[in-house]
Write a structure and sequence with these properties.
Elements (H helix, E strand, L loop, with lengths): L7 E2 L13 H4 L4 E2 L1 H4 L3 H14 L12 H11 L3 E3 L8 H4 L10 H23 L7 H26 L30 H18 L12 H15 L2 H11 L8 H4 L11 E5 L13 H4 L6 H5 L2 E3 L1 H4 L12 E2 L10 H6 L10 E2 L14 E5 H14 L3 H15 L10 H15 L6 H7 L4 E2 L7 H4 L4 E2 L12 H6 L9
Antiparallel strand pairs: 1-2, 3-5, 4-8, 6-7, 9-10
């Protein structure tokens, strides 16, 4: 790996941070030298804003809009997110399980580069912030956010590019390089156990520095950091920790109402959103946008010819009294039976395919603007319920599940399921609730489950007959990009 940063790239930071906004008018908007940016906490906050913005800007191509792009890749690899047509081809090769196992793919290069870019910027902040002039509280907030970003990015990298973490195992399998400072020489891959040890050290340090305060939901506060910790603990099988941190993470956040459920999942001001990127009208990236690929209504070739649908078998699991039942239309191809809302917000040129989604709604046909959800309170309810159930605390798990599910389905009653049946009920709820938000591939991998698209509405020609993948094969690991292999003599490729 080459040096990740020699300068802090501001990436046109647009979010206010701290007490003063004057720096936005006096500093360059493309790059600032290291010596200048860390003289004060005010300038350092500008660098941190660059990381916030890097979460959703366009990278090498329009299909690479930061974390939103990776979220779509993870969905395309799993079974619940259905691509109904080929259209202009974006994410089709990923759905066929081709791009992520091709070292020459621009997608694997982007994913590797994206997360290590965040790590590189975070490392610059962590290495310099203690010497900056400014209040200690601001130093703590800046450093805490940078540490959380570093933990979160390493966590995503090790899940994608390494074998799954095995609770109770040695986890000596190759992970990814741990990068803790700006470096010029390529690093060897650390073990999976070593990576998770560092991830936990960083997120624990972040939690110790952060509090509830922040200027925007694109920033990381203690709730977000605790939510990241809950995800990590769930993946590692540390269920007591996962349950506790998930409960703490959602403190102060309420589940959305029925009406809010239908507002398009496009607004960070939603009461249950804990973390997300706000999109700005005059700074939209048009086709390089999460909503340019997942929304019902943005008029792009991809959306018009390839509306995204829910797995029909999963849809059948949704109770008829569940508010979420209406987020997908099983009869969309029939004008007489189709939800009239679909015709109201789309153009006549849009394909109408059964089980298509209306969960995600862009600002307009000509605008792909929509805020990107990274963490919601509903996820934390479901992490807590799953962790309690897997730890054998069935009654507690059922109560947490009831607190969540009864807000989605007014007819839902406290479950009498126990053991594996309770876990399966929770996982079904998780699949329904988090559809399209980038979790299912991770869930399949952490639980060592196979890919199974059979018997549903997946289109054979779209996925090129990729209906199944056994659990635990080498195909569950992204290939290391060829650019990294060429630049780093210490790098070892994943097996084929």
């Amino acid at each position: 790996m080459k040096k990740l940063l020699s300068k802090i790239f501001l990436l046109g930071a647009i979010l206010s941070f701290g007490c003063s906004e004057d720096y936005l008018d006096t500093l360059p908007t493309d790059a600032v030298s290291e010596n200048l940016v860390f003289t004060t906490t005010t300038n350092a906050m500008t660098a941190l804003n660059g990381i916030h913005r890097s979460m959703f800007i366009r990278y090498d191509s329009q299909g690479q809009p930061g974390e939103g792009g990776v979220m779509i890749m993870r969905e395309a690899l799993a079974e619940d997110y259905v691509l109904t047509g080929i259209a202009n081809g974006w994410f089709i090769s990923m759905s066929r399980w081709l791009n992520h196992i091709n070292e020459n793919s621009g997608d694997v290069r982007f994913v590797w580069r994206f997360y290590y870019k965040i790590i590189g910027n975070a490392n610059m902040i962590i290495a310099n912030i203690d010497d900056a002039e400014g209040p200690q509280a601001e130093k703590d907030e800046i450093k805490g956010q940078a540490l959380a970003y570093r933990a979160w990015a390493h966590f995503n990298l090790v899940q994608l590019f390494a074998e799954r973490y095995q609770a109770g195992g040695g986890n000596s399998q190759l992970g990814v390089p741990i990068v803790l400072e700006p470096i010029t020489e390529g690093s060897a891959r650390n073990t999976v156990e070593e990576v998770y040890t560092q991830i936990n050290a960083d997120i624990d340090a972040a939690i110790a520095l952060l509090d509830e305060g922040r200027n925007a939901k694109s920033h990381i506060n203690i709730n977000v950091a605790r939510g990241i910790k809950a995800r990590i603990a769930l993946t590692q099988g540390n269920y007591a920790v996962a349950a506790q941190l998930a409960s703490q993470a959602r403190d102060g956040y309420e589940l959305m109402s029925e009406s809010q459920l239908y507002e398009g999942f496009n607004n960070v001001d939603n009461p249950e959103w804990i973390w997300g990127s706000r999109q700005i009208d005059d700074q939209q990236t048009f086709f390089a946008s999460y909503f340019a690929y997942v929304s019902l209504n943005f008029s792009s070739t991809n959306i018009r010819g390839n509306p995204k649908a829910i797995n029909s078998k999963l849809y059948a699991e949704i109770s008829d009294t569940d508010y979420r039942k209406g987020l997908w239309d099983p009869n969309a191809s029939d004008p007489a039976l189709r939800d009239p809302f679909i015709d109201e917000v789309t153009l006549s040129s849009f394909a109408k395919r059964d089980y298509m989604n209306r969960k995600f709604i862009a600002q307009a046909n000509a605008s792909s603007v929509g805020d990107v959800p990274y963490m919601r309170a509903s996820e934390m309810f479901l992490i807590e319920a799953e962790a309690l159930a897997r730890a054998g605390n069935d009654s507690q798990a059922a109560q947490v599940l009831f607190s969540f599910a009864s807000q989605r389905d007014p007819e839902y009653t406290l479950t009498t399921n126990t053991g594996e049946a309770l876990i399966e009920e929770i996982m079904i709820q998780r699949r329904i609730e988090l559809w399209g938000e980038g979790f299912r591939f991770y869930d399949l991998k952490r639980l060592n489950l196979p890919l199974d698209r059979t018997g549903a509405n997946h289109v054979e020609t779209v996925i090129n007959s990729k209906f199944e993948e056994p659990a635990g094969t080498s195909n569950w690991q992204f290939k290391i990009p060829i650019s990294e292999l060429n630049a780093n003599e210490n790098m070892v490729q994943n097996p084929s």
